[in-house]
Amino acid sequence: xxLSDTLRRAMREPQWARARLxxxxxxxxxxxxxxxVDLRRRAADEPSGFEPLDEITEHAWRRSDISDxxxxxxxxxxxxxPTLIVELxxxxxxxxxxxxxxxxxxDAKLVSVDMGECARISPYAGWEFVxxxxxxxxxxxxxxxxxxxxxxxxxxxxxDTSHEFEHTAQEIAHWxxxxxxxARVFFHDTHIQRIFRRRDGSRGVGWDNQRGVMAAIxxxxxxxxxxxxDFTTLRGEWIVRHxxxxxxxxxLERLPQPAPPGELETGAEVAVESxxx
Length: 277
Ligand SMILES: C[S@@+](CC[C@H](N)C(=O)[O-])C[C@H]1O[C@@H](n2cnc3c(N)ncnc32)[C@H](O)[C@@H]1O
Hints:
- α5 (94-106) links the parallel β1 (84-88) and β2.
- The protein is α/β, with parallel strands linked by helices.
- It has helices spanning 3-12, 14-39, 51-59, 70-77, 94-106, 134-147, 165-175, 212-221, 261-276, and strands at 84-88, 109-114, 127-131, 154-159, 179-188, 195-197, 203-205, 231-235, 238-243, 249-254.
- The protein has an eight-stranded mixed beta sheet with strand order 3-2-1-4-5-10-9-8, with helices on both faces.
- The protein folds into two domains: 3-39; 51-254, Vaccinia Virus protein VP39 (Rossmann fold).
- It contains nine helices and ten strands.
- The model is unreliable at 265-277 (pLDDT under 50).
- The longest helix is centred in the N-terminal third of the chain and has 26 residues, at 14-39.
- 32% of the residues are buried.
- S-adenosylmethionine binds next to α5 and β2.
């Protein structure tokens, strides 16, 4: 938009002008802050020697609205040993970069869903992109899986779409029934701020989503959570881990259920037998 067009619109729509001015100011503040952070030289993480993790760490060196969380997303998905990963919200593929590396290790299927066209984001052979509204697709998911000879049991579910309360509540209602017993769920943007902070002290410009994602998680778990700080807690059948930086990442990990009594007895018998041999 040319300067004269911008000025004309600002005269016609003062509210738009205020919002635009606020964004320009935020962006300027963020640029100054980040230049100062860079003056102090960012310390790079030492390579782990595990190639997929080092690729993610190198990729996350380029700051983004999720860069703090890519290694966590990878590392926290590994213990699940997933066979099916579902990603809701792809855009430029930052989260896909981490998830496709988890999938490759376990030869798992990675299904990514976005309303927008993202069909060329991942080179991973086990990747399938579905361009659709995620709530509409949830209704077709069981048939979609059975047409491909698979089961709809999701081991890793990553949610990063509209960030609005009603929609996130619907995502929980429509996608959680597909979670496997060992599933982990990752929500990004559980701590969105107008100016958000990364772990290295750099900042980025965000928006006010009225706590939409965290409020939907609170409604599901029936509790209040303070997304402004890191925490780990237990709520019902879920271990909840939260990282406050970089717009927030919240992980729900199913608490392992005790084996049914019959199975326990068998296990005890085996233990006693082998101890007495
Ligand atoms: C924040 S971006 C995702 C970023 C991505 N996870 C990453 O790490 O680069 C949100 C994406 O969600 C998609 N989206 C929003 N609402 C959606 C819906 N109802 N169904 C499917 N995708 C949706 C948007 O098209 C957008 O690409």
